[in-house]
Structure formats: C-alpha cells, structure tokens
Amino acid sequence: MQRxxxxxxxxxxxxxxxxxxxNNSLGISQDEYAGRGQNLLSSLDSGSVVVMRSGDFKMRSxxxxxxxxxxxxxxxLTGWRSPNRYIILSSHSFVVDExxxxxxxxxxxxEESTNTQVMPNEILMNINRFQEIFKSVLKDAKTLYISxxxxxxxxxxxxxxxxxxxxxxxxxxxxxxxxxxxKNALPLFGKFREIKSEAExxxxxxSIELTWNGLxxxxxxxxxxxWEYELQADIEYEMMRGGADxxxxxxxxxxxxxxxxxxxxDNRRQTKExxxxxxxxxxxxxxxxxxxxxxxxxSGKFTKAQTEVYDVVLRAQEEVIKIVKPxxxxxxxxxxxxxxxxxxxYGKYIRHGVTxxxxxxxxxxxxxxxxxxxxxMTVEPGIYIPADADSIALDFRGFGIxxxxxxxxxxxxxxxMTKNVQKEIAEIxxxxx
Length: 433
What we know:
Layout: H1 2-23, H2 30-43, E1 48-53, E2 59-61, E3 64-65, H3 72-78, E4 85-96, E5 99-107, E6 122-126, H4 130-138, E7 143-147, H5 169-176, E8 181-184, H6 186-193, H7 198-221, H8 228-241, E9 246-247, E10 252-255, E11 276-281, E12 283-285, E13 288-289, E14 292-297, H9 304-323, H10 330-343, E15 376-379, E16 382-385, E17 399-402, E18 405-409, E19 414-416, H11 425-431
Parallel strand pairs: 1-7, 5-6, 7-8
Antiparallel strand pairs: 1-4, 2-3, 4-5, 9-12, 10-11, 11-14, 12-13, 15-18, 16-17, 18-19
Helix pairs in contact: 7-8, 9-10
C-alpha cells in the first residue's frame, strides 16, 4: 500500500510539472522541448554522450536555503524545475531493460515511471541506477560532454562515494576508458540558446512588462531622502505582483557616487538632492530574463551637466541600435558606441562593453561574436565620471549614466523590445513630477 501511494504521488508530481509547461499560455510547449532535445541529439558526433545534472539548492547559511532556481541548460532542455534529476543523452541508441533509448531522465523518486517523455526516445528512471547505466553507456562512447552547476561532474562510482562531484573525474575517466575525451557541454548549447523562439520572446516581453512596471513605480516614488532599498522594494513589488519568478539578479540601485559602481547591489545609501540614480533591473518570468537600465534624477529634474552627459549616452545608444543587424559583431557595436562617446569628449570615461545576449540567463550564452537574426541583445552604453576627475568641470564629476535596452535582431535590422520603457529626458521628468 505504501509503495503504491509513493508511486501515485510521484506520477502526479510528474504530471503537474509537465502540465504547467503545457498549459501556461505564455510558456514553452512540450513539443518545443522535444524539438530541443532532438536538435541536441542531432548535433552530436557519432559516439558522443552528454551527462547533465539539475541545479543544486544553494545554502544561505547553516540549514537555510536560497530559493531554488534550475540550472539553465537543464531548464532549457527539459523545462523541469525540480532538483535531484540527471540526464544521459547519447548520439547512438543503447538498450536499457530491453528498450532502445537515446536518453534517460533520472529522478530521486523511489519508484520508476515511463509514463512521461520530455525528449525523443526517452525513459524515466530512478537515480539509483545511474552508476550502472553510466558505466554501460561509456563503453561505446568516444566523447563525454559534461554539463552541471559544478564542473567536472560525474557520479564518482570509481571510489564508491556515491556523490556527483569529483575534481579528478576527467582524468580518471580518460584513464579508465582509453580514447574517451571528456569535454564541457556548454558550447553545445550556445548555438541553440542564442536564437529565441516565438514562445521564448513572449516570455521575455512579459518580463519586460513587469520590469517596466517596477521602474515606473520607483520613478514616481523617487525623491530626495528615500533610501536605495526603498526604490529596490518598489521595483521588486511590481515584478512579483505581476507573477515574476524573482528578479534576474539583485537590482542595482546606485545613487550619487554609487552610480559609478557597475555592479553595485548593496542598496543602503540615502538619496540626496542633485543625485542621479542608476536603476539596472530585470524580472525573471517563467525562466526568462530581461535587462533594462534607466538613469533618473532624484530631484525629478536633470541638471545642465547631467543633461549634457545623458544626451551623449542616449545618442550613442541610438547610433548603435541603428547598426544592429545580422552579420555585424559585438565588437562593431562596441566600436560605434566608443566612437560617439569619444567624439563628444568622454572616451576616457567608458568602463564596459555595450552589449551581451539575454535569455534564460541575463548574461546568456552564445556561439560566436557574430550577430544572428533571432538573438536578443542589450545595447547599454555608459559614461562614468569619478569625483576626482580634475580635467573636467566640477559639476560634471561624481556620477555615472547608463541607458540599456533589449533589442531583437531581425532579418534586416532590429526591434527595440523595451521601446515602451521611457528614456527621453522629457519623458522621465514628466513621470517624476
């Protein structure tokens, strides 16, 4: 009776997890997940095996965990949101329990079930059988690709430790299986993940909508004396109220001198009259991120010096957006931003590149530096003038300005996905009145 109950509970958990993916009107369909698995299998050379591990719980302290977030490649391939799962995929079919399979999803359940399929020619199996099957599959393998939160990753059956981390795994496996090459699986995913499907774009547009709601609330409520963490709370409130999973990263709310810090996330300073605030934020919605930055004046109105620098950053961004199309490179985008900012006399105050891909990860993976249609890229020039920059007038010192939008590369140019997120000086000042 107890075993039967465990099986029923396990089956229901599988059913509802898959049903979530299928029934979420904005989400990724089961057919799309199956296609991703097929694409990965088709890309493998003969004799290749891929081993993947779901993400771990991250510990905040002692026995307190951070909220769980799935490992990105595992999420991309399966849509499964739970920990303690593992996958073996093979370019060639192999026999398990008298069945020809190309992939196996292992779970930590005490029962096995074959009632669901998340990839072509796949079966579901208990994690206790991983060692047995892993060893069997490796006998005919030429290349082992490993994808996991912590690399290298294999079940350390060599020492019977029954753990999935072994720093010497690559060396030991290649010694035990002469001719076997152990490689990182990450490059396999870049060419697939960099091109976004219509379903992925719908999720990213929803992420943008929720992020703009948060930015708008923060802009309206911003005034001298408010704390950075209060603006962060405004942003996160609207994200979560709209159904976001969580922020894609800790929101950057950098006021005054903190606007000069690129990845500032302490958010503990009280804002002052005359400050600028850099708001670099993005919601994660159903596994997908966006990345938006706006710079606003705490007082509700830009000073003359701030306006001059802001206009240069905005013009640089607009000029970069004009050149975005298939075939250009990220270096081309960087060069255009640098050209505009340098011509305006602020070249020495550039601190970062102007673009990166966005997707499941806010800094998403890609296959090459060349832009392709279907990619989503940021365009984010910035100027950062430190307080001790004595070669420039005093009222130009001690602040940073960054403007960031997300663009979808089309066949002939690009679409600014974040076009509704206001960034013109007049728009920002009107909103903050």
